[in-house]
Amino acid sequence: MPANELTQAMTDEQRFLFDLNGFIVVRSALTAEEVARYRDGIYRLARQDLPAERWTSDGEPLDQIRVQAINRDPMFLELVDHPVSLPLVQEIVGEPGILIDNDVELTPRNNKVQGWHRGIGTYGYALDAAGFHCTMVKCIWYLTDCGPGDGPTRIVPGSHKSLIEPPSYSEQAGPPGTQEVIVEAGDLLVFSEACLHAGNLNQSGRVRANMYFNYGPSWVQPWEGYRPAAELVERATGDRRQLLGGGRIWEG
């Protein structure tokens, strides 16, 4: 089934699971053709930034590299308002939104692991009669399979609402309740940044390729260094223009 036929609105099951766990996974959110095209695009950008001596003879990077996406290659603008993620982001943010940051990443074996963190405190998640109100919502698009040992995302389900700090824990084991999000290439993880989460060590022989798009309500600002180029905003229309900051709308 083509990706643009997968999700037109958030389902009742997705609403329940997002409130319960703080995240949902959309399987096969990208077609095989999209996966290949975006992965090739990441490699093109990475080769511009990573010195030639830091690549293997097979054309794989020796170092983890993350690149700000949309200002470097307009192809990645398609992810800003992708028909699978857009209705989810719109409902979860709860009002007209804006893109806070965006990166694409290649992660080889034995990468440096990002520690456990939240992008925002639990005050950044709410649900009332009007719906969800999330101050920071992240979409991770997976362009390679991520099973045990491949460096899957780790998350603590329900921690977006927990007002009790977890007891002491090791970075490797994670807080009590830690779960690895097992995905395949083309899957999409959407989660509240109020959830405790962390990267994981890639112990496989494969390079992991991910794309990260982070959203919030229209009254927040993009992270420093992530403001979309003026020409991209000027050419954008509709929801994309709103998300790029080209016409913020305040709704009480």
How do the strands and helices of this protein lay out in sequence?
Layout: H1 12-21, E1 23-26, H2 32-49, E2 65-68, H3 86-93, E3 97-107, E4 125-128, E5 131-134, E6 137-142, E7 154-155, E8 179-180, E9 188-192, E10 197-198, E11 208-217, H4 230-235, H5 238-243
Antiparallel strand pairs: 1-9, 2-3, 3-11, 4-5, 6-9, 6-11, 7-8, 7-10
Task: Describe what you observe in this structure.
Keywords: Dioxygenase, Oxidoreductase. It comes from Microlunatus panaciterrae. GO terms for molecular function: dioxygenase activity. The protein has 252 residues and is of the alpha+beta class. It has a single domain (20-219), classed as Sandwich (Jelly Rolls), CATH 2.60.120. The chain contains five helices and eleven strands; from the N terminus they run H-E-H-E-H-E-E-E-E-E-E-E-E-E-H-H. The N and C termini lie far apart (38 Å).
Shape estimate: globular
Radius of gyration: 18 Å
Major β-sheet profile: 6 strands, antiparallel
CATH architecture classification name: Sandwich
Order of helices and strands: HEHEHEEEEEEEEEHH
- Poorly predicted regions are 1-8
Q: How many β-strands, per DSSP?
A: 11
Assigned CATH superfamily: q2cbj1_9rhob like domain
Overall domain count: 1
Structural class: alpha+beta
Strand order of the largest sheet: 1-9-6-11-3-2
Strand content: 15-25%
Q: How would you state the average pLDDT, rounded?
A: 93
The CATH class designation is: Mainly Beta
